[in-house]
Task: inverse folding
């Protein structure tokens, strides 16, 4: 029969623990339920008790979340569930290798960064290629990250202008019809004319 094991993790500040545990310990409860472990907090130490496989996965997820808290990121149930899912799918290398670098800072000083492994691959593709197609469900950060990368390139003087284009497909318009509003400050252009316009 497999014996119980225990590991200890340390964090620097009490604020990090509050961020990590979440409201009414909701974040910790997700980890405990997923890996069948018991997590106890004492002073600036977290103890994880359970069977070796579950403890190892919980430890890896907790280390990642502690590093997020140390960087000032707000830890949500979505973050915790994402890392737990990676650990359950035996993709712990993605949890460990998740880089802490950020794309840019907002006007309020908030860091914009990739929050999932897929977003990190997307950002790296934008850095390494001139043209990238981002395909995915609504709300997954495709446009937001692309705009953040464009603003970063503009700030770093890698480009001297940003051109926003979109297909003119709206109610009452025909597909491929390019409205003659290119002379105004708001450039609306159809996909068929986009390459001609960029040239």
Result:
């Amino acid at each position: 029969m497999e014996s119980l094991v225990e590991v200890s993790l340390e964090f620097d500040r009490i604020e990090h623990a509050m961020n990590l545990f979440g409201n009414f310990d909701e974040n910790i409860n997700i980890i405990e339920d997923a890996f069948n472990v018991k997590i106890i907090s004492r002073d600036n130490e977290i103890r994880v008790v359970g069977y070796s496989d579950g403890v190892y996965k919980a430890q890896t997820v907790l280390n990642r979340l502690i590093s997020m808290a140390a960087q000032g990121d707000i830890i949500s149930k979505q973050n915790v569930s994402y890392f737990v899912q990676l650990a359950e799918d035996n993709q712990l290398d993605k949890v460990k290798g998740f880089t802490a670098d950020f794309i840019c800072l907002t006007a309020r000083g908030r860091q914009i960064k990739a929050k999932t492994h897929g977003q990190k691959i997307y950002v790296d593709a934008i850095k390494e290629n001139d043209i990238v197609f981002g395909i995915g469900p609504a709300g997954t950060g495709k446009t937001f990250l692309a705009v953040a990368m464009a603003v970063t390139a503009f700030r770093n003087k890698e480009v001297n202008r940003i051109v926003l284009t979109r297909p003119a497909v709206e109610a009452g318009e025909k597909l491929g019809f390019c409205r003659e509003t290119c002379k105004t400050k708001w450039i609306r252009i159809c996909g068929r004319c986009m390459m001609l316009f960029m040239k």
